[in-house]
Amino acid sequence: MKCELVSSLADVNRNEWDSLNTSNHPFTSYDFLNSLEMSESVTAKTGWNPQHIIIKNNTGNIIGASPNYLKMHSYGEYIFDHAWANAFENAGGQYYPKLLSAIPFTPATGPRILIDPKNSDNNKIFQLIIKMFEVIVQNNNLSSAHINFITDNLNKKLNNEKWIKRKGLQFHWHNKDYNSFDDFLSKLKSSKRKAIRKERRTILNNNLIIQKVTGNELNNKIWDSFYNFYLNTIDKKWGGAYLTKNFFYLINKTMKNKILLIIAKQNNKIVAGALNFIGSNTLYGRNWGSIVDIPFLHFELCYYQAIEYAIDNNIKKVEAGAQGHHKIQRGYVAESTYSRHLIQNESFAKAVRNFVQLEAKEIDKQIQLINEQGSPYSNI
Asked: Is 130 left (phi over 0), alpha (psi -120 to 50) or beta?
């Protein structure tokens, strides 16, 4: 077996990469990751320097891979380690650059180490990739390596002391074989059901037409409108857009059948949109934007329409991104997320380990409190 570091996915065979993405996860697909690079949303200039780990067999075929980036900051990750960086640098250390295995700007759990499970050497390949993380950190005198939003399977396989486990919290909606949106509503407490119906009536009263657009219905004109919404919303909240317009053009060429864009029209003009990616059994809500200020429009496009689509298409789960306690009242439940962290400085690693252990206890309390006392469901 041979290990390589690749600084551009353009140098990797698309079919070989995707043959390892056996879960067909949209965010670890070649097309999604390559679109980020080709659109210059992800470059060394933006602080995301691609350093993908590639494992090849003796005949030169790719048998293992991991999307990785040399990071000069901690933006666009959604696993917040700014406080770690400040503490380490205040103590005289240098936190950046760091090595990160993640999907840029995408807080969604998924595979970070791609191996065909049918490969008889899959455990050797896994161990080799993990060893590569450690070698890269040591050889380049990096402060740390991080693997964000990992699957339960990877979290269990990485069960060693060097890789510190960190727990996070997100809100996900589960399809319990509902027949319709009304069937879902019937399982909520009366007050929550009435509130959602009231919010949805507000949309109708504003003469908005909601459309779900996917596949060949998508075109660059629609993306031009959506990008304006995206910029407008980003500028209001954070003041800097990560994604370039060309990114949306590129995914439209290569991923249109995995995209669900929910748009709102007013007077025959598109005024808002919510971007979703369609996985094997999960709908992933990502970006949204609007040029109108209409109450509850965000909830309608990002939550209710996504839930409707999931029910109609027998999709088992909706993930609507990071944060957002307001999702609870709309049928989402609190769930744990996981990341793993390799920190080279032993005393700093000890401090981080103590911190995340206390943090995990608080998150467990939050999840229990939210799902038991704060649940919107009438049968819990």
From this structure: alpha
Helices 82-90, 346-372: axis angle to 10 degrees equals: 150
Would you list the domain boundaries of the chain? 2-168+337-372, 176-315
- Are 209 and 247 a contacting pair, CB within 8 Å? no
Residues with Cβ within 8 Å of 142's Cβ and at least 6 positions away in sequence, in order, are 97, 98, 99, 136, 344
CATH number of 2-168+337-372: 3.40.630.30
Fold of domain 176-315 = Aminopeptidase (3.40.630)
Give pLDDT, residue 325: 84
Asked if the domains 2-168+337-372 and 176-315 are classified in one and the same CATH topology, the answer is yes
pLDDT at 337 over 60: yes
What rounded mean pLDDT belongs to the chain?
95
- Torsion of the alpha carbons at 291, 293, 299 and 304, rounded to the nearest 10: -70
CA distance linking residue 284 with residue 281, whole number of Å: 10
The pTM of this model reads 0.95
pLDDT tens digit string along 28-82? 999 999 999 999 999 999 999 999 999 999 999 999 999 999 999 999 999 999 9
In this predicted structure, what is the pLDDT of residue 90?
A: 97
What are the DSSP calls for 316-362, one per residue? -EEE--S--GGGGGGT-EEEEEEEEEEESSHHHHHHHHHHHHHHHHH
